[in-house]
Structures are given as C-alpha cells and as structure tokens.
Amino acid sequence: xxxxxxxxxxxxxxxxxxxxxxxxxxxxxxxxxxxxxxxxxxxxxxxxxxxxxxxxxxxxxxxxxxxxxxxxxxxxxxxxxxxxxxxxxxxxxxxxxxxxxxxxxxxxxxxxxxx
Length: 115
Hints:
This protein is 0% helix and 49% strand. It is mainly beta.
C-alpha cells in the first residue's frame, strides 16, 4: 500500500485548497478512504471518509460545510477540497485507506494558513 499526498501549500485565511492523494497497491473500487491531519504539537485528527463507491461520506463536525471529500476511482485518487481556510487548519494532511481511521501511512502534505 502506498499513498502519496500532494497539493498543500501556504495560503491566507479565507482561501481554498484542493489536496490530492494517489493510491497504489490496492484499488479504491473496494476500499473506503479517509483524510486525517496533524497540527503542530497535536495528535492525529480524523476529518472525513468516503465509501468505495463514493456514495456515502462522513464528516467530522468541524469539517462539515468547509471540507469536501471526493474520489476518482478510474485514477485511483481521492481529493480533499478545503474552503475558507483558517489558521487552525494549519497541519500536515494525510489520506488513509479505510473508514474513520486515525492513522498515517504516507508523508502527507503540509498546509499552512497565515496572514
């Protein structure tokens, strides 16, 4: 299993970012996926999950309304769209295989939100 996250960067509050995750070693057709993050000095935090078919999604309360998860099974990719970013969203973001998982496999992608 290999997961490679990309798309992070430094943005100002209120801006948006879309993160991508390319999976290999397994197919998204039979695996739910999740996004988690780790802010500086804090533990891993689950954000949201999507089923293998992409028809059911679950969000952490604080992610509802600003974050969206989606997937493209033909590309074996999953995405995280983040709107209206806040300084407290600064973290390393990881995609993970599984539903409601709180683990990290890849290197993640850094998102920094500051003015």
